[in-house]
Amino acid sequence: MPSGNLRNISDTALWVAQYRIMESDRPDALFRDPLARLLAGTRGEELVRDMKVADFAWPMIVRTAVMDEIILRSIASEGIDVVLNLAAGLDTRPYRLPLAPSLRWIEADLPGILSEKEAILAREKPACRLERVAADLTDPAARRRLFREAASGGRAVLTVTEGLLAYLTPDQVSALSADLHAEEAMRLWLIDLASPRLKKLLDRRVGKHVQAAQAPFQFAPASGTAFFGPQGWKELEFRSTFEEGIRLGRKPKMAWLFQLLARLGPPARREEMRRMGGIVLLGRGDTLPSGR
Questions:
Q1: pLDDT, average across residues 152-160
Q2: Which domains does the chain have, with CATH numbers?
Q3: DSSP per residue over 64-101, as a string?
Q4: How large is the greatest C-alpha to C-alpha distance in the chain, in angstroms?
Q5: Taking a C-beta distance cutoff of 8 angstroms, is the pair 274, 242 a contact?
Q6: For the purposes of burial, counting CB atoms within 10 Å of the CB of 113, is it exposed (0-12), middle (13-18) or buried (19 or more)?
Q7: Hey, what long-range contacts does 234-237 have (CB within 8 A, 24 or more apart)?
Q8: Each residue of 125-147: pLDDT tens digit?
Q9: Which residues contact 72 (CB under 8 A, 6 or more apart)?
Q10: What integer pLDDT is reported at residue 291 of this predicted model?
């Protein structure tokens, strides 16, 4: 198999880490991740080159930068004392963000990727109290045990699922959502979300690669953030990836065409295009999910 092919879902972490390297190397970088090159090695560069997805970096860079902003703001203003990062992959926020030493940060992912990451970063010191927990998030018992342990002793937990939900089925997302809400300390949930329209674009652009890795894109609800309502979550904040790309100076080459089409369409169409993809902060709704 060529070195530039995705082998499994864990390889997507190398792919995204390479984008963080690309951003970090810019003189006007939105963030700097000095550990990304150490984690990605040469394979991350091979993946981006051979898959021909260098121009696909901008939404991932925007997602990272916006999530950084929301995480830091939530910790400062919402009393968050625990951050739970599900499918953490090669994320390095506990090392690169200005976090308090007392903050508890939990990374959960499959055993293989966590053990390799821990070995590579053995000499690096995180800014906060970092824990790593090996867990298969599609296993209900393991997932609920993880959520109970993360909520234990915490006043307010911020859960982060960056680049995870798209690979799950709607039923899996619904179950994860309900289990997360079952723990009272789980106060905020930060996600990225794609619409069906965006999923079609992604399938055309990189679908063959994720299919080859047996990790196809599956979750892109037509109802948007309303999907999470029955499990007890409500939208607190939606950041359009495209709009944030313009704000941050990271936008696609054809941004002018997208903006023109949006202006020419009716309000409903403009809103649909604005919400094609975004970063969303969810909070607990007023009612518990049915049956829980």
A1: 95
A2: 11-284 (3.40.50.150)
A3: HHHHHHHHHHHHHHS---EEEEET-TT--HHHHS---T
A4: 55
A5: yes
A6: buried
A7: 234/282, 234/283, 234/284, 234/285, 235/280, 235/281, 235/282, 236/188, 236/281, 236/282, 236/283, 237/70, 237/280, 237/281
A8: 999 999 999 999 999 999 999 99
A9: 97, 98
A10: 37
CA distances from 175 to 178, 186, 217 (A): 5, 15, 18
* Token pair recorded at residue 117: 């990451």
- Name the DSSP letter for residue 102: T
* Residue 127 parent element (H or E): none
Q: What's the CA gap between 283 and 237, in Å, rounded? A: 9
Continuous H helices in the chain = 11-24, 36-40, 43-50, 57-77, 93-96, 111-120, 140-151, 170-181, 196-212, 241-248, 255-264, 267-274
Amino acid at 268: A
Nearest to 192 by CA among 86, 78, 81, 284: 86
Q: Exposed, middle or buried, 247 (CB in 10 Å: 0-12/13-18/19+)?
A: middle
Buried b vs exposed e over 63-81: b needs ≥16 C-beta within 10 Å?
Answer: bbbbbebbbeebbeeeebb
Structure tokens at 12: 């997507």
Contacting residues for 268 by C-beta, under 8 A, at least 6 apart: none
Instruction: Answer whether 157's CB lies under 8 Å from 282's CB.
Output: no
- pLDDT tens, position by position, 232-290: 999 999 999 999 999 999 977 766 566 666 667 677 777 777 888 999 999 998 543 33
What value does the mean pLDDT take over residues 96-111?
97
Q: What is the pLDDT of residues 51-79, one digit of tens each?
A: 888 888 999 999 999 999 999 999 999 99
Comparing C-alpha atoms, which of 62, 57, 58 is closest to residue 15? Answer: 57
Nearest to 7 by CA among 51, 57, 68: 51
Give the end-to-end CA distance of the chain in Å, rounded to a whole number: 46
